[in-house]
Protein 1
Amino acid sequence: MIRSLLTGLLMLALPAMASAAPAKDALTRIKATKSVSIAYRADALPFSFLDDSKQPNGYSIDLCRRVVASIGEQLGIEGIQIKWVPVTLQTRMDAVAKGQADMECGSTTVTLARMKQVDFSSYTFVDGTGLLVKADAGISKLTDLGGKKLGVLPGTTNEKALNDALKKSAINAVVVPVKSRDEGFAQFEAGELDAFIGDRVLLMGMSPKAKSPKSITMLADTLSMEPYAIVLPLGDDKLRLAVNTALARIYRSGAIVDVFGRWFGGMGKPGLMLEAMFVLGSIPE
């Protein structure tokens, strides 16, 4: 337990190690135009989704609205307008890397490979790769997946974690790529897949939509740690500092408790790893 916690705490420092790139200055443009472009996904409930009024909403969206307000305070301006840029799982990184958005607020995991294309803020959430199975399928642990069909979104950190876990445990299962989270969940419910793999909180967010929520369950096995952060343009140190300053103030002030409670109140208090993340993100002025 202690070793796992230390490993997780060390990983919390990774965003600060993002490689340098030619300097950019989005803050100057944001101050001049009083606007900021934020990329969002509509399929990452409860982090980023469209609510009943077709407006972006969710934990990450809520957090980023507060970040924008703080950036306004830092720049000494009021009323920064947010221009919402819809993206998908496949286009979210390019939108920021190519300048179509100043940041992406969703459920994007920080990885070293992605740091070659974009930068990241301090961490905003910590999740893990989970496995959703039918409660009566006789699957209670990872080793029960031999010969089973496992659905996962291709090109994700979840896919890599799944393949690594299967290889490590010498489990011969069929990994089935799905086009979207909704499609994968539908195939799982229809019995075409024996398990559906993804970030645990995202899977939990989909479970209430099931025709029979009590018929599905989450395995205790967690295949990976998934640290989320706000995606930022590579090399724009001023913007990253402004965003991290905003996050630090949100964490230090306790406002993060309200944000967490709004979206995850039913889960109780933040876990040990998430609490540690909030503490380490409370960088002093």
Protein 2
Amino acid sequence: MENTITSIKHQWNNLKIENPKLRIRDAAKELGLSEAELVNAGVGEHNTLLNIDFKELLKETNTLGYVMALTRNDFCVHERKGVYTKVGFNAHVGLVVTPDIDLRLFMTHWNFGFAVNENDRLSFQFFDADGSAVHKIYLTDKSDAKAYERMVAKYRADDQDQQLNIQPTPAKEVEKPDHEVAVNAFQEAWIALQDTHDFHGLLKDYGLTRTQALRLAPDGYALQISLSSLKQVLTNASETSTPIMVFTGSAGCIQIHTGEIKKLVQTGPWFNVLDPEFNMHLREDGIDSIWLVKKPTADGLVHSIEVYDKEGNTIVQFFGKRKPGIPESEAWRALLNDVNNN
């Protein structure tokens, strides 16, 4: 069947009748479509297609007041409540840096946008060229719905009857053989790092994927750990009120929570943080490997716990609360001592 808007709408409606609780991301996979195509099928009824002036729209999100920011990948959902203030851009990279909403935006991956009304739950939703979600902004009962309506009217696309030009997901980077890597030079460069942000450049310099870099790390700088060890660290962080940082990303957005985590709940395959301002949903059966990683900086070693899927994609990362120029928290290091000793 040709996937016209009409046929997509028909398939989506039939699936909702069969399984009314199915989430749209899962429905898209079941239908062999993208999430953006399913959202687009609701345009003209309860959704509105936006024009592509996403930077200007984001600069106005502060008018919405208190909202919920959502960024996810296949195996981790990161939800943080707060107000979008201090939204700024340098070319195609954007920053939102506040104590509550903390984002890194990669605008080349923001290709489609919609105002979405799901049973009176209002949101702005943004998608990559392959139709996968990069970021969503949900209104709460404390948000300004009139400001939302004004923004929808202002950024509404002129043509509301568009078939989306969905592109194939880019091919996964092929990992080069270990024997082709200048391992000694790579390890020396790792030990000489001065900033955690330089790690990405280090990978590019040596042509490494993240998980390959962890396998080839200098002795003692990357230790593979168990899921139970990760959950114990998070449980201890909760019990000792140790503030941490939780990073989850899509191709177009990295979302960060900084603060304490309190209520930890296991629900089937999902390990959850369910706090008033921050929720995390981590799908355990999507995890292939977990690493305790040490990176040198000008302020001393920084330790992270990094979680990867079988494709080598980053699912979620955990750090101790810190800022540049300030050494890593001793409380965070104390939580990791038990992992080191296991």
Protein 3
Amino acid sequence: MERKIIPIGGGLLRLGETIAIDKFIVKESGRKNPKVLFIPTASKDLPAYSVAFRRVYKKLGCQVKILRLFNKTKFSQTTVEKLITSADIIYVGGGDYDILLSMWKKHKIIPFIQSAYRRGTILSGLSAGCAVWYEYLIDSDENKKIHLKKGLGMLKGIAIPHYKTENPFPLEIRKTKTIVTAIEDKCAVIYINEHLKGSIPVTREKAFTMRHPHVKKKQVTLYFHKSR
């Protein structure tokens, strides 16, 4: 069973900015009407976000369910586990990464997500939902000294979502000995069995990697979907 992760650098789903990527994710599932679970924790379960996601993915032929961890109605662990492990695709919304991680730990859903991934569920997400799959991500607050936060570690290295091509990698990051992956808005990358296979741009957006001891960015080449 192939394991796939498709992190998206950024973009407004409700405005259709990532629709080419959304179609790609659905196609990669290999199912006619895949079961998609949306987890909007990072936005504090913002209702408008869930409405937009459901609208977009239902149009793509998906069966959509939403896991709201801020819901006053408490789900049993059995119900949560079933929601997660029965999904063909898990999509994690953007927002506040610290809120996302603390709530996931509080509700003990991380092992369920890891188990679903090992069974072949596609993992995806945008912004915070992009970075969470990596070992580390950069704290993007411009008023703070750059430091790293821990992710789930399914993918090696450091993630930089919302990257801008004209920006150099920060000096502190260039000194690291691990791989750095930077993804522009309206661009995604695909990993198969934890190996980076390429980028999925909406138009001409880009993704880059950098490995120690090289300090120059290397553009990720376009990934072509193989028809089934």
Protein 4
Amino acid sequence: MDGEVAQLAALVISANNRIAHSDDPMPWFAGQRAFDRCGSIAFHTSHKRRYGKDRRVPVAETPGDWLDRLTESGVERVVMSCIRQDQDDDEDMIPDRLSAGFAGGGSLWSMTSETPDGGVIRWTPGWRAAYPRDPDGRIWAVEYLANPSPATPPGVDLEEVRNTLRAALSDMNEFAQAQHFDQVAAIFGSALCLLDGAPDPRPVPRPPGPADTLPPPARRLLFAAQRGWTFDNMSLWRDQDFSQDVWVRYAALSEQLYTAVTTAMVAAVNASVPV
């Protein structure tokens, strides 16, 4: 899954777990995979000046400090959101599913923190390759910038989202099989197993992390959506020799899958929001 999306998901789930279970030490938090490619992760707000560029004001210099600031300020929930960039009348706009594999491409992902008095802050990530020679591969500097925002409604029907994701994964699996892309079909087949909570035919190491705090249905939904995210790996479909009709079918199925996967990720992550 895209690193930016994975990190946002981890922060939202972790923040809501801290809010709901303040006594949970979350020993996995600081060393989780969502942070392991980052040399720095900071949280700032922007202070407008009469002249010159806006000044960045530090809020927290680490994710752990950010969690502390949230609880100190009385935040009652953190909500993830995804906004499409390609939903307008511009015929030349590249679909989000195609641009998702490029820096700054895809949909706009962010999170909002909300206090009981109606205060809402939107945290928007910015990634920069600031440490290209880091020996441990921690090349990224990530800054989350805070701005006032309307509230983000988190509630959705998980079962409905699950059914939509199942249909999209099944259709893409059948298409890949019909076109003899066995490796691709195996990915979508494993995503369907994860959605059902069945043994994963393509298991990967899963150290303890934020997803473990989710209810089982949401956890299965998240894992399946993560496995179904193939939009940054177009080489899976290399050597395509599709007819025009098949290309049209492929584009329609890919669009259906992108919508289902992104919706499922948001729904699964926001299942962590305290009731």
